[in-house]
Amino acid sequence: MSMKDKNASDESFRLEEFFVNSGSNVISIKEVEDISQKTGIPSRRVECFALGKGVIPIRYQRNIGTFGIDGQIKLLESTVMIIGLGGLGGSILEQISRAGFGTIIGVDPDMFEQSNLNRQLLSTEHAIGEKKVAAAEKRVRQINSAVSFTGHVCRLQDLADELWQRADMVFDCLDNIPDRLILADKCERANCPLIHGAIAGWYAEVGVVWPGSKMLETYYQGQTEGMEKELGTPASTAMMTASIMAAKAGQVLAGSDLSKESKMHVFNLLDDEWQTITM
Amino acid sequence: MVVNVKLMSLFAKYLKNYPDGKISLDSAATVRTLAESLGLPIKRVKIITVNGKQETLDKSLSDGDLVYIFPPAIGGG
Questions:
Q1: Does residue A241 share a domain with residue A219?
Q2: Which residues of chain B have pLDDT under 70?
Q3: Which of A15, A64, A200, B63 could bond A227 through an S-S bridge, CB–CB 3.0 to 4.6 Å?
Q4: What is the ipTM of this complex?
Q5: The dihedral of CA A113, A115, A119, A125: what is its sign?
Q6: Which chain A residues are within 8 Å of B77, Cβ to Cβ?
Q7: Structure confidence at residue A269 as a pLDDT band (50, 70, 90)
Q8: Are B44 and B53 in contact (CB under 8 A)?
Q9: Is A230 in Cβ contact with B52 (below 8 Å)?
Q10: By the 8 A CB rule, do B73 and A237 touch?
């Protein structure tokens, strides 16, 4: 038996006694925390164990119909990276920490400015001048204490190689094409799916970039500039796009049977159109 | 032949004289022919779809094709 298997087995043995005679098919946040404190096992792993026994953490009750128990366990066991904690990244963070994505790594070099307030969920008047990563960490703590959040105040180019290997999935919430292509290359090398999203005015695009597809290079066709400077970035487009990105991530991680075809979904909120481009 | 054209976002103005989006072209027309006839800035025309599939300026068009041309969205919100 490997050391990892032995540790998991020891952990299961220690947790078992709390569930043998519980007689309940749900478990509260306080009960999870109590077990975590008594055993020294992180809340996230207590929740996973409970789910494995068919005991649903109440906080995830309304997830189960969508993801299933096995899917919820996969979400809790997943490690995801959010590159960019602005309008897209902040809204994704809100959703995936509620959903119970177990380990989140957030990356952004910037601090909040007044021009972020129209759309960036993590920004408030009091947070002007605060690092986006610090606001993200606080928000995750408020929403779901079982989720592990680690922040990095740096550009994606400065992240350690080891982090890319840990990620099961990465969210592309950047704001320019050159950096997006660098990110796609990092994910390609780490054999990690990338959830891409971008917005401009009433327009947006979302796609799952599967390793080996080179989808972003194909899609952008050498273009380096977009249209968001002229069209702006309203909250409704940012949050809609973040929601679709979070939905796609949940489907991929929870094991939905998704096609691995390269597709970009393009949204036009002005004319009520959703176009799926096959590449 | 007649193709159905949709120009989104900043390109929409190039279609203002064709409210129904129907453009008549010679039978040998390509997307480039179409873009030039509408006065689109060719250097900025990168994202093109014909009947839902991404194509290039050299794609030959057929009667009834549905063509979308638009600049990419790249903002991170």
A1: yes
A2: none
A3: A200
A4: 0.85
A5: positive
A6: 86-89, 91, 119-120, 173, 175, 199, 233, 237-238, 241-242
A7: very high
A8: no
A9: no
A10: no
